[in-house]
Design goal:
With 70 residues, the chain is mainly β. 13% of the residues lie in helices and 37% in strands. It contains one helix and four strands. A hairpin with a 5-residue loop joins strand 3 and strand 4.
């Protein structure tokens, strides 16, 4: 899949699951983002995907769940 390795291209992206990892929805992904880079991460990601959910993980990072565009 051509969308592999998106997590580390997202500004401030620490870790997550790239599209293609979830068999039930191959366009779904999740990334943990450094809070100081959140605006840059959202700007970068919104050009390529729809952000479906946000939350804060136990380490204080922001989790962004998204669905990549076609």
């Amino acid at each position: 899949m051509r969308n592999r390795q998106i997590v580390h291209r997202i500004p401030g992206g620490w870790y997550g699951n790239d599209p293609g990892v979830f068999p039930s929805d191959p366009r779904k992904g999740v990334v943990s983002v450094d809070p100081s880079k959140l605006v840059n991460a959202i700007t970068w990601l919104r050009r390529r995907a729809t952000i479906t959910e946000t939350s804060i993980d136990t380490y204080g990072a922001i989790l962004l769940k998204y669905r990549i565009g076609r």
